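Appendix C: a fully annotated inverse folding record. The material below is reproduced so that readers can follow the format used throughout the book. The structure is listed first as tokens, followed by the designed sequence.
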């Protein structure tokens, strides 16, 4: 049976993932690591994030200087 505590954890982690942004002083590796940690935390409580959703979230959190990269990846889809 689905527990309320898991529902709260899922909601909390999904909100963190939705709102994630690459910080001004953060290197890209740290940004990817934060995303991976949230994905793994969700997986550990039985919530799977689709690759497409994770990719779009990751690209959406990149700063403006990553515009060309983001556009290139999205156009290859």
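Designed amino acids, in order:
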């Amino acid at each position: 049976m689905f527990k309320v505590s898991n529902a709260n954890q899922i909601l909390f982690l999904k909100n963190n993932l939705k709102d994630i942004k690459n910080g001004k002083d953060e290197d890209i590796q740290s940004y990817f690591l934060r995303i991976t940690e949230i994905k793994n935390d969700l997986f550990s409580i039985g919530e799977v994030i689709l690759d497409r959703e994770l990719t779009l979230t990751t690209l959406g959190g990149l700063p403006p200087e990553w515009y060309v990269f983001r556009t290139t990846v999205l156009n290859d889809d």
